[in-house]
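Standup, Tuesday
Yesterday: got the pipeline producing structure tokens again.
Today: sanity-check two examples.
Blockers: none.

Example 1:
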Amino acid sequence: MLREFFKFELGIQLRQPLLWVCALIFGALAFGATTTDAIQIGGSIGNVNRNAPVVVAQLLGVFSLMSMFVVTIFIAGSVLRDGDVGISDMLFATPMKKHDYLVGRFLAGLLACMVIFAVIVAGMMLGP
């Protein structure tokens, strides 16, 4: 049952244009931050190379902090969708486990957010 909830929710998450727009914006910011001095994220770098481990860790930390607000959109949106449609009472009246339902939805939203983080890392790798 967990697998069905996961596959269904992941399909919905990957079809949302907001996911891809956020991924492209963050990927472009990561690309710009590692390419030029005009875009500075998390403070100045100085004379350190843009692909130095300290700079990469600093950029990933700042992007993680910025994307925490985006993560709540995808995780909370999946749970609130049932309440808006009015099907949540019917779902919890069926003989399914609430654990499978909530964990499946959460894991699908988490994997969708990992797509954004993967695009950020890809932008940072393409920059230098």
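Example 2:
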Amino acid sequence: MIGCAAYDGAVPTLLDIGYVVLAGLAAPWWLRKRRGGWGARFGRVGELPACDRPRVLLHAVSVGEVASLRPLVPLLAERAEVVICATTDTGVARARELYGEAHEVVRYPLDASWAVRRFLDAVRPDAVGLVELEVWPQFVKACATRGIPVGVVSGRLSERSFRGYRRARALLSPSFARLARVGAQDAAVLERFATLGTARDRCVVTGSIKWDAVPLPGEGDDGEAQGRAAALRAALGIDPGRPLIVAGSTGPGEEALLHGACPPGVQLLCAPRKPERFDDAAAALPGCVRRSAGGAGGEAAQDRFLLDTIGELSTAYRLADVVVLGRSFGPLEGVKLHGSDPAEPAGLGKAVVIGPRFGDFRVMVEALREAGGLLVAPREELANTLARLIADPGERAGLGERALACAHANRGAAERNAGLLLDMLASRGG
């Protein structure tokens, strides 16, 4: 293991050199992806105005993590100025949509020392909360040098990710050792953070804020949400008189799998995880109605729909008779993925099905599975599972009721994680 002093001597320079080399090698890929915000990626975000309250920076990678902050942000905003930070183009766009009217939204920089330095000079946080993980060495070190405490909220570190981090433990341990606090989703995750170098007395089990991020029926803007769902149904031409399966966050090959497994006469809506896959997903759903086209586009009845937009999946879930969680059905087309977030459909009381590869969301899936609120179906059993659920409203209702009860029982993580971050501010004198 590298001590912090030795680490601070040579490793940052080596990391910067490595980042430059990797950036050069990856440049053709980035250009094909047409990523935006390059100035901000190199730390040029514009100096934020001074504030008479302490400033907390919350960093979430993409759309799912950004949305999970909804219950946490107002709790922190009672005591501090909150700045939201995201990495991906879709994450930044979603953060601006959800929080931009009341809070500053910035893009997270690349982990090169000069980019991090510019970013911190402009944002000047008093504390940083990293959502789920995102422990980048240069960023954590720069914050430590400036006396800015960094913590992890709703910490998630899967067994698969842990194995990879552990192989690089000598390089990464100083970064984990610098974490001021870790709010882990469960005891196993806490142990993984401790093994990687975070002091055990700085770690506590807080649960996942994603359980809190979904308003239960009757809470929040439930009436407005129902109105948005009705508008989406009308825009796509979904028949309310026929069952609908909604497949969320689908990955490569899964649209074709679901198209073949969907029972005859049942409608199917697929929402791919990544925008760059929208065209491939449309090709796998012959004759599908695309949300981006603006309407059903014809008199003929449709039974395949593609949600090729960002931020509407939760609305689509409200229309579902059965929800299938994508990125979970094994090595399709040579791609290995590891599940999707079950909290939202569970919190809506839906019958939820997921494939057997759910390692990135194991804590939540196992909680639902133990409560009898979720079914795990391998690829070869998916068609039979869907046919049985569509044919049995009672089974669907039972799954949904137990899923909703599980979601309710697991709430409270937002308050615990807010307390963790406010304790960090207090320890700094904020």
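Quick observation on example 2: Residues 167 and 208 are 26 Å apart (CA to CA). The radius of gyration is 22 Å.
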